[in-house]
Input
Amino acid sequence: MSYSINKIPLFQELEKSQNILIAGAGGGFDVFCGIPLYFNLINQGKKVIIGNFSFTKLSETTSEKVFPYCYKIRSGDSDLSGRHYFPERYLKLWFGLQGDNVDVYGFERIGVNPLKDAYKYLIKKHRIDTIILVDGGTDSLMFGDEEGLGTPQEDVCSMAAVYKSGVKNQYLVSIGFGIDHYHGVSHYRFLENVAELSKDGGYLGLFQLTKEMDEAAKYIDAIRFANDRMRGKESIVSSSIVSALEGNYGDCHVINRTKGSELWINPLMTIYWSFDLRKVVKKIKYYDLIKDTNTIAEFNGYLSKYRYELEKYRDKKQMPI
Output
């Protein structure tokens, strides 16, 4: 497909999509990073549903189990585990307050095969032709041989599951450049990987939020809504992105969770980087080891095996600017 300088390549790709699933790849609040995409696509007349790889133990909530490891989230649902961590529920509640009855689903923290089956259930039920995985951070772009991987388990499980689901159109978007430095990710290596994906058309360009955009305003409102109801468990990633949207810079802390660490809030955090998911998955060097896993523990075991046997890492490097 050819692109034009006055159009965003990802949205050119999505022109023929009708039924779209936007899903958080890495668990927790990742799904909130898809809110701007959701409203833009809805305004284009697309049908969109929401999913998230959940850190909440959904079997210990009142949410409706609709398929093994897949739950439909309702605004009145409760977390019965005592952890009081349920961002998907607050997202559903926030949507309801906007007058939007979008379907929101959560996936248990499982391995690739059962997650693939849960995705296939939603694909069939909602006639999904397109899945957009959203990563808050940049560790989803680590291929496996980097010195620092961040926390790739959930991201790569989601990516492998969607890849194996067979859905027609598959994309990955990442927002929050710089945030995963805290988790050991080298952004020199991130950019190197983007360059590698550019060689075969896997990189679909970037676009940026500004606070003046209606979609960004909704994202800011949703994060504040959820953070206010999850004191002490607020989203570090999205709070950092919101802080950058508001023009803060440097070691600026807007939630107590980050105090004691050094932040680099900066305008690059508000950029969406977009990719052809199939081409990203083909670059993951340990994909063949983890593609048939059933649990996160099994995934971790194979990842550890790959890392132990790896003869040479691509070491961390600072960007020479």
